[in-house]
């Protein structure tokens, strides 16, 4: 069933009795061409593009919980392509272009809202760094504008411009950035993949890999053994634990990243605003709640919850930037398990085991990368060659000295 204004009108008149489930609930077959381990945004996007762009439909997505139970439903919904380095910027710009046509692509309302993202500069050095980044963005085909203090004030006059410690001196503005409804991304990709014949199997945990003569030929799962010509892993914060079952050690640590939502407020924040003197980023949802986040919790964990010191730190940053929110009530908070790579950039690559592929290490960039990640992973799985925008996202880049150290803080995942 295709969704349309006519379909909504028809169902409304007839009592909404004709709607069909968004996707099937199949049992796994004995064998597939490609098995995707992980039913989050990246896994579902990969399945969608394998079927749509490459015609490969004998595919199954295995999710240990329910769709949307992982990081795809636990983020702050921001999309952007304001990166600096050649290994990252073209990739994230591809993702932003895919976001712009996503709803028409999979016929689902993902609430893509390109309200823009503003990165604030609080020192001369930070302004110069943003100038460099903006130039790199424009050279890669992205949009970027450098605003002076007056330009920022005209856009967001309610910020604390005269803070003695953190004066606002400039801002890097990307008008095409914005937010997307995170759950709807998972549902839309699931529906798009399912409609083309992909099996989406929920509550199916992978417990091991089938190996034959040094090659991966399938998986063991809570629903039995399943064979496949290729096995593609994309399980975010669980990457190290899952890949350990294949005997692989990854350059990844798992950390908790918290996100927060305030009570509903009147419309105030026009887009996404980031605090450059600390780590705080905020947007406003359609319900009026402030959606915001900040630093990692700073310790290794697989728990989807956070701790109170980080709550205090993030809220301090928010109040320093916007004192007016000091009396707003915090409605809820949650944690996502982040797969933090050693240089802050992701991987989309074959592993050293034939038939086994890996997608992970997304750090803070996982949600915004969802379309490009799926597009490039599908290309790799279908052709056995990396997509042109993902040639540097290799697992062996630490051995070859080709790190993509986007923030320039080296091998410290807690600083990314």
Word description of this protein:
This protein is an alpha/beta fold. It contains 11 helices and 18 strands. It has helices at residues 5-13, 41-54, 89-100, 102-106, 124-139, 149-155, 182-195, 239-244, 308-321, 370-383, 397-400, and strands at 31-37, 59-62, 78-79, 117-121, 145-148, 170-174, 178-179, 199-201, 206-212, 215-221, 224-233, 252-264, 272-275, 280-284, 289-300, 330-341, 347-350, 356-360. The strands form 3 sheets. Strands 1, 2, 8, 9, 10, 11, 17 and 18 form an 8-stranded mixed β-sheet that branches. Helix 2 (41-54) crosses helix 10 and helix 3 (89-100) crosses helix 10. It is globular, with a radius of gyration of 21 Å. The relative contact order is 0.18.
Topology:
Blueprint: H1 5-13, E1 31-37, H2 41-54, E2 59-62, E3 78-79, H3 89-100, H4 102-106, E4 117-121, H5 124-139, E5 145-148, H6 149-155, E6 170-174, E7 178-179, H7 182-195, E8 199-201, E9 206-212, E10 215-221, E11 224-233, H8 239-244, E12 252-264, E13 272-275, E14 280-284, E15 289-300, H9 308-321, E16 330-341, E17 347-350, E18 356-360, H10 370-383, H11 397-400
Parallel strand pairs: 1-2, 1-11, 2-8, 4-13, 11-18
Antiparallel strand pairs: 3-7, 4-6, 5-6, 9-10, 10-11, 12-15, 12-16, 13-14, 14-15, 17-18
Helix pairs in contact: 2-7, 2-10, 3-10
């Amino acid at each position: 069933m295709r969704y349309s204004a006519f379909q909504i009108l028809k169902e409304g008149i007839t009592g909404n009795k004709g709607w069909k489930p968004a996707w099937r609930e199949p049992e796994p077959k004995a064998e597939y061409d490609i098995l995707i381990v992980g039913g989050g945004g990246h896994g579902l996007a990969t399945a969608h593009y394998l079927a749509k762009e490459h015609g490969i439909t004998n595919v199954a997505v295995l999710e240990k919980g329910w769709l949307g139970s992982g990081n795809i439903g636990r983020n702050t919904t921001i999309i952007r392509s304001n990166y600096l380095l050649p290994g990252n910027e073209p990739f994230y710009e591809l993702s932003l272009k895919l976001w712009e046509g996503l709803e028409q692509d999979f016929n689902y309302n993902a609430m893509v809202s390109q309200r823009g993202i503003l990165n604030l500069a609080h020192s001369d050095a930070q302004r110069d760094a943003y100038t460099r980044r903006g130039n790199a963005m424009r050279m890669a085909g992205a949009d970027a504008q450098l605003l002076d203090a007056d330009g920022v004030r005209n856009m967001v006059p309610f910020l604390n411009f005269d803070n003695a410690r953190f004066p606002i001196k400039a801002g890097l503005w990307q008008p095409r950035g914005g937010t997307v409804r995170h759950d709807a991304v998972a549902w839309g990709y699931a529906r798009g993949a399912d409609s083309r014949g992909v099996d989406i199997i929920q509550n199916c945990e992978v417990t091991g890999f089938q190996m034959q003569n040094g090659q991966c030929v399938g998986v063991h799962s809570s629903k039995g053994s399943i064979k496949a010509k290729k096995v593609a892993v994309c399980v975010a914060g669980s990457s190290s634990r899952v890949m350990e079952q294949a005997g692989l050690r990854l350059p990844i640590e798992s950390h908790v990243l918290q996100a927060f939502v305030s009570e509903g407020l009147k419309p105030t924040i026009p887009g996404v605003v980031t605090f450059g003197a600390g780590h705080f980023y905020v947007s406003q949802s359609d319900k009026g709640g402030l959606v915001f986040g900040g630093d990692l919790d700073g310790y290794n964990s697989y728990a989807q919850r956070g701790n109170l010191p980080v709550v205090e730190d993030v809220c301090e940053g928010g109040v320093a930037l916007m004192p007016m929110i000091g009396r707003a009530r915090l409605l809820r908070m949650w944690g996502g398990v982040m797969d933090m790579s050693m240089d802050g950039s992701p991987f989309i690559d074959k592993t050293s085991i034939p038939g086994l592929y890996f997608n992970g290490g997304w750090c803070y960039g996982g949600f915004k990368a969802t379309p490009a990640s799926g597009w490039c992973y599908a290309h790799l799985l279908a052709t056995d060659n990396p997509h042109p925008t993902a040639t540097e996202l290799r697992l062996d880049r630490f051995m070859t000295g080709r790190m993509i150290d986007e923030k320039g803080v080296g091998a410290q995942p807690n600083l990314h």
